[in-house]
Amino acid sequence: MILAMLLTACGQPARTPVPVQPGGCPEGELADGDTCVPEACGTGTWGALPVDDGTVHVDAGAPPQGTGTADSPLPTVQAGLERAAELGGGLVAVAAGTYLEAISLDQTHDGVTLAGRCRELVFLDGSESDGAATIDIYSRRATPEIRVQGLTVTGGASSGLWVENAALTLTATDIVDNDSTGLLATNASLTLTDVRVSRTQPSRNGLDGVGIDASFDVVLTATRCVLDGNAQAALFAEGSGTTVAFVDSAVSDTLPNRDGLGRGIEAQSGATVTLTRSTVQGSADVGVMATGEGTTLHLVDSQVIENHGYGVAAQAGATLTATGSRFDSNTDIGVYASDSGTVVELDTSGVAWNTPEAPGSLGFGLDVESGAALALTDCVVQGNTAVGLFANGQGTSVTVVDTVIVDTVPSPDGLLGLGVAAQEGAWLAATGCRIEGNTAEGVLADGDESTVDLTDTSISRTRSDEAGTGGQGIVARHGAAVRATRCTLEANSNVGVAAADAGTVVDLVDTAVRGTLRTVDSGGALGLGAQDGGLVHLLRSEVSATEGVGGYVVAGGVLELEDSSLTDNRFAGAVALGGTISLRGTSITGNVADEEWGGGLGIYANATFGVSTLSVVDCEIGPHPYAGVWLDGQGFYEIEQSSVSGGLGVPSGSHTLHGNSVFAENGVTAWGEAGGLLLSGNTFEGASEVAVLLDAASASLEANSWSGNGTDLLQQRCTDLEPLQDPDLSGVPNAIVCPEGSVLTAYDLLFTSLYLPVTETEP
Hints:
Layout: H1 2-10, E1 18-19, E2 29-32, E3 35-38, E4 56-58, H2 77-86, E5 90-94, E6 97-100, E7 103-105, E8 112-116, E9 122-125, E10 135-138, E11 145-149, E12 152-154, E13 161-164, E14 167-176, E15 181-186, E16 188-198, E17 210-215, E18 218-223, E19 226-228, E20 232-238, E21 243-247, E22 250-252, E23 262-268, E24 272-276, E25 279-281, E26 286-291, E27 296-300, E28 303-305, E29 310-315, E30 319-323, E31 326-328, E32 333-338, E33 343-347, E34 350-352, E35 364-369, E36 373-377, E37 380-382, E38 387-392, E39 397-401, E40 404-406, E41 418-423, E42 427-431, E43 434-436, E44 441-446, E45 451-455, E46 458-460, E47 472-477, E48 481-485, E49 488-490, E50 495-500, E51 505-509, E52 512-514, E53 525-531, E54 535-539, E55 542-544, E56 548-554, E57 558-562, E58 565-567, E59 572-577, E60 580-584, E61 587-589, E62 601-606, E63 613-617, E64 620-621, E65 627-632, E66 636-640, E67 643-645, E68 650-652, E69 655-657, E70 660-665, E71 676-680, E72 683-685, E73 690-695, E74 700-702, E75 705-707, E76 711-716, E77 735-737
Parallel strand pairs: 4-5, 5-8, 6-9, 7-10, 8-11, 9-12, 10-13, 11-14, 12-14, 13-15, 14-16, 15-17, 16-18, 16-19, 17-20, 18-21, 19-22, 20-23, 21-24, 22-25, 23-26, 24-27, 25-28, 26-29, 27-30, 28-31, 29-32, 30-33, 31-34, 32-35, 33-36, 34-37, 35-38, 36-39, 37-40, 38-41, 39-42, 40-43, 41-44, 42-45, ...
Antiparallel strand pairs: 1-3, 2-3, 68-69
């Protein structure tokens, strides 16, 4: 709509007056004798031009001997300009017609106004002038001030209009179908209003085709202008002394040159370009590009949309700022920044629906690489492909404040769909953000020295892919670090927070991980997961309502909780399968059996996939259907100064199974250098059957207290075991050691997925 309005304001392609039809002229036209002409053309030979006795008149049909008066006009534009120069300036009025000539102006034309009746009817055509610009304005000494209006400038062999060492005001003019450059300016001041630069063609070598080239010490202001159908670059600005203001204007459909370059606006080598309420659309390569130290690009209430490649790119030390702007529906990347010293700042702006149109293109929302810096404030990043916000490389830094990153979808081959990703040493900080409805991972930190710092941010509803994999809220791997403070992770899929690989650390402070969902094909969800040396640490945080285990470690993963809670999860609050769980000041309550996997445990540790380590200090472990703590196989298990409640157990025929505070089986030994079980300074209470049940297992006990249990301690199936005796049994009111027969033990299923579902695909 904006582009259509600007095309209307700046004129349509050259036209010929049509006869007046019955009923009058179409809307926007008026009758001039027996023909209809655009309203801007007025009526009569000179239309609405302010002619007077001092005006020099030009008419293509005039005889050669004209003097320049209204009654005796000159036949060529150049002749009119020379006559005006003799008069010391003034208006050169040009009647309707086609003028096959290239014209030149210099310092002698200071104060001259060249005005056609209207651009729809006045054509200055330089196609018969060998190698020249159609209009050439060049001054060797002074800087003349010249005005041009109401023309269509066409047929230039090197450019339509060339300005050097002059000040030009250009109004209501079309520069169309020229070669190499539409408007070329050097060391000049230009004010353009209602100007169209269109269909500039590449030169014979297939290069150029630039609409406006403002190179070296050019001050250009363009208002209500249109640049469409040019090649290589619609607007090119170069040099530290060049400043361009592009206001209420539009760039569209820039075509590729021989090398495939087709950029809407390109600024380099220190130039400054400001777009205000403007649109850049349909470029073949990049919508807007800024390159080089000192180059600055400002966008205010503008949009860069539907370009066939990058929307906007800043690199090699350039600066890009945008306020109230949009970078939507581009086919590779919405906003791209690369190289040390490059700075991009977006405020109250949107980056949305960037989608690849061909194999090999990306569809990323924002991509920050190789040491560039990005700052987003109060922005919306929505509906992009593969990655919403991607930070990559050492020295790359991204700061995101009060921003929404939502609904990223996978690439056409089904990969990724990440909300935020930082890898290979990049640093990213997000404060007050909402990361929601993305695919595969909400936040990914990947690679040694990659760091993500989240504050007051929510990560929710991350979706799994079509195969049911992925959907994690936070994933850190390969040595990355993530810190989340006062954050909420809710209704993510498969895993709320995952850490994998040695050196990887995830810190959650005052953070909640709630309602992690299992997918149709997954065995069960995990609130927290750590594997292969990855560490997840919680301080004053909670993991609750997981459709699976609250906290899970495997194959050397580490899970640490301080002053935190694991509540209302399924199967177990925490599970260790060859990893380490350390709990201090933490509550584990209300965890229930899973419909598929069974359970109903506070903590479960298993030695099937390696030695597990469990340290529980000053914790509250509430009653659970099977056991507060279930230990299966030898490991390093310490439970100290904690309250561990038993429960009513699970009915099984005429028997009641478990409901233990602690259940140990399959070779767990008393505490020693090789591991075992240490129970010290705890309170075991409320077990309707047995509080501490040791089945073919042993333990070291010291200074525990017992209350309200059916049996406080039972050690059974003692073959190859040293039966418990003092001092371990000291203070145990009701202990049964190695009786004949045994209490039945059983449970439904075991949650033993060996590895976390952590997506390994690189962005």
